[in-house]
User: Fold this.
Amino acid sequence: MRAGNLRAELVGADLTRIRWGGLELASAIQVTVRDEHWGTLAPRVLQAKVDERPDGFTVALDVVHGDDAFAWRGAIRADDGTLELEMSGSAERDLLYRRIGICVLHPWEGYAGARFTVTPMTASRAAEAEVKFAQGAKPGKGGQLPGKKVAPRIAAQRGCEPGYELVSPPVNHNLYSIEDVKLMVESWRHLNPDVRAALKFVATHGVEMACMGGVNAGANRLHLSDGCGGTGAAKRVDQKHGGVPVAAVLPAVQDMLVEEGVRERVELSVDGAVVAQAERYMPVLLDALASVTRR
Assistant:
């Protein structure tokens, strides 16, 4: 469906892939109804009528959620590049406050998290997905989130109670070889053919071999995490004594990718702390995207 430069698709009761020319403005606009545990009550479309015109379109919807817990009627109108939505509904049983609304799902630039937070929905919508073989200054030990940072919103996203300390899995037991990584990348692209695949490694001596394997697995970006970085959530011994400065291994990674003729197929990115001024310029001179914090 289109209205001038505005284009969109109707999937069930959701308006999806809303684009202005080649720019995606929103991945979806949907009416969402939540239960007392913030679970989503699935919508069921009773009637959908689409009227497409040369200069726009109109969609009329009649939808119920859950076991007829909430029913609504609405309309989506698009004319000459403008988009309007309206709805009215009624609850057939008690629902908690602020559990009904219109959600605008913005396109994600990237998504990274523990395996239990990645779903087919998130994998299919992200522009980039990243496998973390390292967590910065704590290689092989996973990520830590103190309980005081686990607010109700974070707890709902991670499926836990507010205030509980969260620890990401220390190692990914599904990935023991480059073939396993390649299979995961292919699985992403089965859900989302346009997704960019990124692999994150800790800066250690010999990491260039792992990076070369990542290219062969189909990665679009390789990320090296400096051993001097860290957000402060890790234990001090992990922050200070895990990994090496990225400047010590980035030249070897660059040389191997160039020698194997694959440097143009992949992006390099790094992160970490700047201890010496020379470390500020080396990633740039080696054509790596740098994200640094000053020490």
